[in-house]
Design goal:
By secondary structure, this protein is mainly alpha-helical. The protein has three domains: 189 residues, no CATH class; 105 residues, no CATH class; 182 residues, Cathepsin B, Chain A, CATH 3.90.70. It is 58% helix and 4% strand. The protein is built from 23 helices and four strands. The protein has a four-stranded mixed sheet with strand order 2-1-3-4. A hairpin with a 2-residue loop joins strand 3 and strand 4. Helix 1 runs parallel beside helix 3 and helix 18 crosses helix 19. The radius of gyration is 30 Å and the shape is elongated. The protein starts with a helix and ends with a strand.
């Protein structure tokens, strides 16, 4: 197909008459799709275009679709403004990239109009293709925050079936949109989907041939989770968005290795967001990690040891203030000498309590040294993260379980007393003081073993040492009040 005929098809519809702002906007959006569909025609071969033809087509398109005549200077100004962005590195030939860009240049005409003046009713009256073109323009063009906000509200108010049609359009025009732009638009649609839309099924399924994750799928997931978390008021530790983000990630049915990689990417994305002060960012990341633990780790544990999860046998540890150490030492000892299905026949003679007392005391000393070394090797923010778990009695002789608000306050505080860490190490070095998940995490790190902690009703509470779930079966503790017992 000759270049002049392409231009003639694009210019087929007459310029908009006196129809006001909305009519002009709709004419430009429709011209965009007319150009797209023309350039997608099997009869049109972009490789036949030479540089002169491309330049001529570029100018003729603008003259054809313009609501008013433009000078060559205006055409060049509009054309070059974002041409480099639209000529992104897609899998297209050089000429095809230019033709591909011509369609998007049509949307630049909207730069000359007050699109912020659009009302919600007007946006809702747009066809799906018109709305998609407007979304592309709003996301591609700087300083369109007001328009993006209006589009966000419009999409959130869509019926699920209308949202599905928009999503299908993004897949229909993959080649025209380009991979990166398609990803940007789809992320935008996912982030603002109306209730009733199943987001998870719109993420591309993993390839059955590789254990890794497709980069596009990974980026979609990371962007969506980060977007959910950034909606949270950093003072709101109970926000439903934590649960929504964790549920979404858990629904992807990914391996633990891939999930941890995605979590790292989400953390990095949050850390790079300069609009949130560092302490609030740390809290946001920490609370999301907690939510992920409660969602994902139970499923992983059941998969690793289903017979233990369904038939726990409770063994009471001495209530001498060292119950956590007792429980963990007991759990390891039992694992060496008994089958998980035969605990009823496992008597106290197998536990060797005298030897366990020595082991428990040695374990405490090793853990204290291990913790001191961790702190010595860490940076100040890491120490702050550790200390946010701790709350001391007035005389600093014991550690009291710390509320979420108190943890939050310490994370936000500008300074932490220099001697607080020394006092903590002194307390955990003495008898009868290891009574929290924080200390369990130190042991998990030292043993390279995950520790699953259930509540008094054997409901899931938390997991520490989750990074070792792929290499070691978890030890299981029941936590009731301030007391721990091993569950085997």
């Amino acid at each position: 197909m000759r270049v002049d005929k392409v231009c003639a098809q694009i210019a087929h519809a007459p310029p908009p008459q006196q129809g006001g702002l909305v009519a002009t906007i709709l004419a430009i959006l429709d011209r965009f799709w007319l150009t797209v569909d023309t350039l997608k025609s099997e009869q049109f071969n972009p490789k036949k275009l030479n540089t002169k033809s491309l330049k001529w087509l570029n100018q003729k398109q603008f003259l054809a679709i313009s609501p008013e005549k433009l000078s060559k200077e205006q055409i060049r100004s509009l054309g070059q403004r974002q041409l480099s962005y639209w000529l992104e590195a897609d899998r297209l030939t050089t000429n095809a990239k230019h033709v591909h860009a011509l369609a998007f240049q049509q949307l630049l005409m909207l730069n000359r109009l007050q699109t912020d003046g659009l009302t919600q009713d007007q946006i809702h009256s747009f066809s799906h293709k018109q709305l998609l073109a407007l979304i592309i323009y709003a996301l591609d063009t700087p300083h369109q925050e007001t328009l993006r906000t209006k589009l966000t509200e419009a999409i959130a108010a869509y019926k699920p079936e209308d949202w599905e049609d928009l999503w299908k359009l993004t897949n229909t025009y993959t080649d025209t949109l380009g991979k990166q732009r398609q990803l940007t638009v789809q992320t935008f649609l996912m982030d603002h989907a109306p209730s009733g839309v199943s987001i998870s099924r719109h993420v591309p399924p993993p390839s059955p041939r590789t254990p890794s994750i497709d980069p596009k799928r990974k980026e979609l997931i990371v962007n969506h989770i980060a977007s959910l978390l950034l909606k949270i008021d950093t003072q709101d530790t109970e926000s439903p968005y934590y649960n929504q983000a964790a549920t979404f990630l858990n629904d992807q049915k990914l391996s633990l290795e891939v999930i941890e990689d995605i979590e790292r990417c989400v953390r990095q994305k949050l850390l790079e967001n300069v609009t949130i002060p560092p302490p609030q960012r740390s809290l946001l990341i920490y609370l999301f990690a907690l939510e992920m633990t409660s969602h994902h780790m139970t499923a992983v544990y059941v998969k690793l040891a289903p017979e233990m999860y369904s038939t726990h046998t409770l063994i009471h540890a001495p209530k001498d203030g060292n119950c956590m150490l007792w429980s963990l030492v007991l759990a390891r000892q039992i694992r060496k000498h008994a089958n998980a299905k035969d605990f009823e026949n496992f008597g106290s003679q197998h536990l060797q309590f005298n030897a366990l007392i020595v082991k428990q005391q040695k374990l405490r000393k090793k853990m204290v040294e291990h913790f001191k070394q961790q702190i010595a090797d860490s940076t100040p923010p890491y120490r702050r993260y550790f200390l946010s778990y701790l709350f001391f009695s007035e005389d600093f002789t014991s550690i009291i379980p710390k509320s979420e608000q108190e943890q939050s306050d310490l994370l936000y505080s500008a300074e932490i007393p220099d001697n607080l860490l020394d006092k903590y190490i002194k307390i955990i070095s003495s008898d009868r003081s290891w009574n929290g998940d924080f200390e369990a995490a130190i042991i998990a790190d030292f043993w390279n073993t995950p520790i699953l902690i259930l509540d008094e009703h054997l409901n899931y509470r938390t997991t520490v040492g989750r990074q070792f779930l792929d290499t070691a079966a978890p030890l299981v503790l029941r936590h009731s009040g301030n007391h721990y017992d091993p569950l085997c």
